[in-house]
Design a protein that fits this description.
The complex is a heterodimer of chains A (about 230) and B (about 375). With about 230 residues, chain A is of the alpha/beta class. Chain A contains 8 helices and 6 strands. In chain A, α2 packs parallel to α3.
């Protein structure tokens, strides 16, 4: 079996099944493998640092064309926990700079990030959830793309989560709890984030949805110099 | 003897090839025809000081020319990049990175004559004509070429393989035996008769003990091994390996345990002769079911350390890469390196064949993902 030469690295299983559907619906005319680090951190999450470690090992694979395009989607997370948009850029630049990749200046980072290569390799794409700007995670991106007719139900789910007198989760994880609750109240409860796509709960004309799609197309449909 | 890095120049597709770090055990991967086997060949040539019979064997295995006739190409010309002897002073060079003084170099040379003035003890000067070897670079200074050859150099030693002569002259570089011991395991099965000879040569030695211990690791019921004479259909005798297994009263033919066991036997028989040198395995996974590959890697990592052997193996198989990575990561004290041979897509490299190296940390990160890097 010919393995895919285009990779999208994501943080965890929930993200993987979500982005596999996004890519499938895009009909890119090319196979993009969505991959993740198997290591999990102490809280049982596949870590963002795991993505960076994997990235270090995989970027050198561009040199001989084993992979032609690599991109990553990670959460911005929260400044007060040592993360955030700027920290993520700084961290990933320590991996990319020595390999000849340089962040392409653009007027609006909202449309995704692109690191240009100086010697003919394909650009490296980076999307920092939710919007390449603010703190947050994939669930925040989902929140901003919810279809109008789903809004009332989501509103109720948010209120239910917000009304908990003594929530077990830390407050920065509220978006995760809201989306999970909203999904739990669907016609077919029990599905992961991919359920938002399969049950057609998101509005792909929303600016962030459009931006993500355009970014994926730009990354995977731009040929590297020799191909 | 251990190479810490590798640089190969002008040898087949490896025009300017570097591996920045080698381990004690090295696994080489890459697509068909990418140059994996050329790396093993280069190491054989390095270990064997490019002796003539080795170069002949390698040429023969490719159905390439190694004797002079009236047609192009010249003998061994196919071994050079682009299958042409180079212009200028370029040579095949095999050695460590940034260590040209210990590298083995092979120049294509022209044999020419030059007149020298010689002054004897009594002060009389006379003219003398001597033969010498020159490269293409200074060819324009001579109008009569006697012949062609290869000039092999390592440190201050040289050897000339003159295509017009049967024998190698200028035997200052050892041209018999190997400078560095090595065993080469080709993709096809070595004949039982040849394996029997190997077995005879290690009878009652420590090496025999090593073979038996190794067989036991792969085949836990293994008790003992011997080669016996058997007759063939046409009345000739041949040797065949028999093993004694626990719980069986009589010995059984090794082959009755399947092809895999013959692959294992040839591997373990070839380990001891590589002591202090290189063990070169072309297509490691040959005949080895994936369930046994991890055991074999364990064995090889252990013996590499014990017998001071540097191992180079090629593979096509992802199972093999996974089992290698698992053992390399587990065996902290023995360095395992994987490198892939392939064409660079960087603009500045212009299609050069390069090595992509995975050290243990990277191997671990890759195996901790669901990405295949074959």
């Amino acid at each position: 079996m010919e393995t895919s030469r285009q990779l999208l690295l994501v943080e965890g299983d929930a993200d993987k099944s979500f982005f596999e559907i996004i890519i499938e619906k895009l009909s890119l005319n090319t196979t993009v493998k969505v991959a993740l680090p198997k290591e999990v951190d102490n809280d049982g999450y596949n870590s963002k640092e795991g993505v960076f470690n994997l990235l270090k090992a995989l970027l050198s694979q561009l040199d001989d064309g084993t992979f032609t395009h690599i991109a990553a989607i990670v959460d911005s997370d929260y400044i007060r926990y040592g993360h955030g948009y700027q920290k993520t850029i700084t961290r990933i630049s320590t991996i990319l700079d020595p390999l000849g990749f340089e962040l392409k200046e653009s007027e609006s980072t909202q449309n995704g990030l692109c690191f240009k290569h100086s010697d003919g390799l394909a650009d490296f794409g980076l999307w920092i959830m939710p919007d390449n700007q603010n703190e947050g995670m994939l669930e925040d991106w989902i929140k901003s793309c919810i279809k109008e007719d789903e809004s009332p139900l989501f509103q109720q789910a948010s209120e239910a989560v917000g009304s908990l007198s003594d929530p077990k989760f830390k407050d920065h994880l509220a978006a995760k709890a809201e989306v999970a609750t909203w999904l739990a109240w669907q016609k077919n409860p029990g599905h992961g984030l991919y359920g938002t796509l399969n049950a057609d709960l998101l509005d792909n004309t929303q600016p962030l949805f459009q931006a993500l799609e355009q970014w994926l197309k730009a990354i995977y449909l731009t040929p590297s110099s020799t191909l | 003897m251990m190479l810490n890095s590798l640089e190969i120049k002008n040898f087949r597709s490896l025009e300017d090839f570097q591996v920045k770090k080698l381990g004690q055990v090295n696994l080489i991967v890459g697509k068909n025809n990418c140059g994996k086997s050329s790396v093993l060949e280069a190491l054989r040539i390095y270990a064997g000081n490019a002796n003539k019979s080795l170069l002949e064997n390698i040429a023969l295995s490719h159905d390439e020319k190694y004797t002079l006739d009236d047609d192009e190409p010249l003998p061994f010309e196919d071994s050079f990049t682009d299958r042409k002897f180079p212009v200028g002073e370029k040579a095949i060079s095999i050695g460590e990175l940034n260590n040209t003084k210990d590298a083995l170099t092979i120049y294509h040379v022209y044999r020419v004559e030059k007149e020298y003035s010689v002054t004897d003890d009594e002060g009389n000067t006379r003219k003398e004509i001597r033969q010498l070897s020159i490269t293409q670079k200074s060819l324009a200074n001579y109008n009569h070429i006697l012949g062609n050859g290869l000039l092999v150099k390592k440190k201050d030693h040289t050897a000339l393989i003159d295509f017009n002569l049967q024998l190698t002259s200028l035997r200052r570089l050892p041209q018999t035996g190997n400078a560095i011991p090595y065993s080469y395991i080709p993709t096809q099965l070595i004949s039982m008769d040849d394996l029997a000879k190997e077995w005879d040569s290690i009878a009652l030695t420590d090496a025999e003990k090593t073979v038996k211990q190794a067989m036991q690791i792969i085949l836990p019921d293994f008790e003992n091994l011997t080669f016996v004479n058997a007759s063939t259909n046409n009345g000739k005798t041949r040797r065949l390996a028999k093993v004694k297994l626990k719980g069986l009263s009589h010995p059984i033919p090794l082959k009755s345990l399947g092809d895999g066991m013959q692959h294992i036997l040839q591997l373990v028989l070839k380990i001891s002769p590589a002591k202090g040198g290189f063990l070169l395995i072309d297509e490691f996974e040959n005949g080895l079911h994936y369930s046994v590959q991890e055991k074999v890697w364990h064995l090889l990592f252990e013996l590499a350390e014990k017998l001071d052997i540097q191992i180079f193996a090629t593979t096509h198989s992802w199972d093999c890469i996974e089992s290698f990575a698992k053992v390399a990561v587990a065996k902290q004290d023995v360095d395992g390196v994987l490198f892939r041979v392939g064409k660079s897509v960087r603009n500045s490299d212009k299609g050069r064949v390069i090595a992509t190296v995975f050290e243990e940390e990277q191997l671990y990160n890759i195996t901790q993902s669901d990405v295949e890097v074959r």
